[in-house]
Amino acid sequence: MLVEVDPDRPGLELPAAGPEPAPRVAPPQRPTTEPRDEPRRARRVAVEPLPSRDLEAWDAPDEESIYAAAEAARRLLQLAGLALEPRVAADGERLLMGLSGDDDERLRTLGIRFLDTLEALLPRAVLGLSGRHVRCRVEGAGLREARERELRSLAAELGERVRASRERQVVGPFNPAERRIIHLELRDAAGVRTESLGNGFMKRVAVEPE
User: Fold this and answer.
1) Does 28 map to a domain?
2) Closest to 91 measured CA to CA, from 152, 40, 135, 151
3) Does residue 133 contact residue 65 with C-beta atoms inside 8 Å?
4) How many domains does the chain have?
């Protein structure tokens, strides 16, 4: 408590100090953005579930699924912050998508795993947009071609190693497309055979004497 004293009237008697009044607390203010006369109401958003499909069954691509794949890829690339444009075409029983644009160099830095992730997401996105479950193959910045050359070289090296040592070699894990490259590369190679090991999407590949 502060008391002011007048130096010119030192003999002035001050009244006895009583109890200090309790501080006044202002009532809580309601947010100005919310109308005072309307209660807050929960918003209801209708969400349509994805079509019920066996995700092991694949559909042949059509015009609608081509458009859906391009639209889904644009949205995913925008979320990833990549300035790339998808080009989509039917390639037999699957869709083939090529990516190109200002961020080709960033795509090379992200590497093959980014393309694998995009390939895994696209079929479900296409299913949600078109009702068709279609395989998608994604290429960009020459990453798939470089990876295929690498796997072919690895397969040839493993074949030579197994023929020379007569011992089994196991490598991986690889996704189905990568395993297929190794199997095809050694399918007609003399003295060796290949086998996929394990369960699930990613499996190892064994190369052994025939």
Assistant:
1) no
2) 135
3) no
4) 2
